[in-house]
Structure formats: structure tokens, C-alpha cells
Amino acid sequence: MDSLGATLFFVIAVLGALGSVEVSVPEQLGAEVGQPVKIPCTHTISGSKSNVMVEWFVINKQGERKRIAYKDVTSSVTDPGTGYSERVSMDSDDTLLISKAELMDERVFLCQVIAGAAGSQEGKTELKLYDAPEPPEVDYKQTIQSVTEQHPSEIGTCTSRNGYPAPMIAWYKDDVLLPSITTRNEEIYMVPRVVKEASGLYTVTNKLYSKLSKVDKDSMYHCQVRYQMMNEKKHTLDSEKFQITLHYHTEVVTFNVTADAIIKEGDDVRLHCSADGFPQPDYTFYKLV
Q1: Mean pLDDT of 75-94
Q2: What is the bridge-based pairing of β-strands 202-210 and 153-163?
Q3: What are phi and psi of 117, to 5 degrees?
Q4: Entry's SUPFAM superfamilies (predicted)?
């Protein structure tokens, strides 16, 4: 064997004798705001296991890492002045424990295992935060709206507060989903708005505009907020249902006479006049002579 081959064989033999480190962490993890979080870090060390240290870091948007906790053979320490000093710890199997999740925790966490001569390895977990919004509230016009309006009328405004990530709002008419059209037109459209509050949570609003006709006089409207929680689960919350008061012209007038089959002089006779418009018109009776 030449000298180069002997040297290569020696290096491989030494590396094999020293061992290796393998680290396993979940690629992505979900958590609810305000709830405790556990981020596991499983590691396997072959060969020398002396001087093992497990460290947890957070990584900012610039890719810089800051250590927040570590554990070695003698101690388990939470680093001071990191924003996590009062909220994190490590349990016996090196899992990182966050006592109460905050929106700032939506970031990448890194677990690094150093095992002396066996080397080191690391793994990254992206933590995603979720917070269910408040049930939607609707604000609708109590005044009478007219079918004679040339442009779509404002039906109502739907609002849902304190959600994360920003939820979506959908509108229903008689329990049928309305098309989500945000381009202004002469039939139906919606105006959505998203506001990020100082807390980091989102308030979403959505105004519904629709061209009205007489067939809408008995229609029931409501809105629905749609949001996502952990494990990609979809959730919904519905608002109360409401009905608009519609002004429409009279198209049909009905006249009825209530009396016995044969009317004799002196009998009581009731004349009924009704119209299908709203509000009901004034009625005037005339006697033709």
C-alpha cells in the first residue's frame, strides 16, 4: 500500500473510532398563543460520549443565532437577557420547554449537540403560531333600502378581531355562499380590510355591497370568519343572521268583498284592498255613481 492510501485508511479508521452525532427535530411545529410549547431534540451518539452538551438557539431574520439555553453533564442553564430567560427550560430528554407562547416565538429554533471527540450536529425547527379570532360581528343598516337605487347598496359590515394569522371573511345569503368579488361592479362586490394591531394580532373587516331587487325582501344574510389552527385544521365561526328592510314599489293590487253569498239591502259588507309593495301605501276608496 502506498503512503497516500495508508494515510487515507488511517484517517477513516480514526473517524470511525471517534464516532458520530445524529440530531432529529421536527421540521415544523405549530403552537397556540398563550399555551405551553415543547420542541423535542432527539440525538444519537456513536462512539465517544464524553462531554456532551446540548444547546438551544433562536435564529433571527438575518440568520444570526442567539443561544437561549443549554445543558451539559453537570448543569442545565437558561441564558440571561435573551427575551426567553423567564419562559424557557430544558427537560431531562433535552426538549425545549416554552411556558407560554408569544407571537415573537414564530421563528426558527436550532438544537445543537456537541459530543467531544464524536463531533457535533444540529437541527432546525420552524415554529408557527396560531390564535383563534373572536366570533364575527355584523353591523347592518337599520334604515329602509330601496330597489330603485342605481348602484349596489351597502348590506353590512362584518368584523372579526384578534386572530393570527389573519383570518378570511365570507358572506352568505340564505345560507348560500356569495362569490368573493373584490372588484367594484354594478351587481355585487366586497371590500375587505386587514389591520395588524399593536399586539401583533389581526382585525379583519369585510363590507358587502349588492344590487337589490324585490326578491331580496325575505332574504337572510350572515358572514363567516374562516381561520387555521395547528395541524392545518380549518375552523369557522358564524355571525348572527339578519334581514334588511327593503322599499319596493307596488306591482299588484288585490280587491276583495267579504259578505254572504247573496247580498241584501242592509247587510254588512267588508271591502278589502291590499297591495304587495313596502311600505304599505295609503288606501282610498271611491264610490262610482
Answers
A1: 94
A2: antiparallel
A3: -65, -20
A4: Immunoglobulin
Q: Do 39 and 58 contact (CB within 8 A), yes or no?
A: no
Question: Does position 287 have pLDDT exceeding 60, yes or no?
Answer: yes
pLDDT, position 260: 67
- Model pLDDT for residues 233-257, shown as the tens digit of each residue: 799 999 999 998 887 777 788 878 7
Residue type, position 220, single letter: M
The conformation of residue 271, written as its DSSP 8-state character, comes to E
The backbone region for 11, taken as left when phi is positive above 0, alpha when psi lies in -120 to 50, beta otherwise, is alpha
Q: Please tell me the number of Cα atoms within 13 Å of 139 on its side-chain side.
A: 6
Per-residue cell: 32: 397556540
* 276/230: higher pLDDT: 230
The domains located in the chain, with CATH, are: 20-129 (2.60.40.10), 137-247 (2.60.40.10)
Q: Please tell me what DSSP assigns to residue 11.
A: H
Angle, CA 149 vertex, CA 148 and CA 151 arms, to 5°: 140
DSSP state of 34: T
Give the Cβ contact number of residue 86 at 10 Å. Answer: 10
By CB neighbour count within 10 A (0-12 exposed, 13-18 middle, 19+ buried), where does 6 fall? exposed
Classify strands 246-247 and 234-238 as parallel, antiparallel or unpaired: unpaired
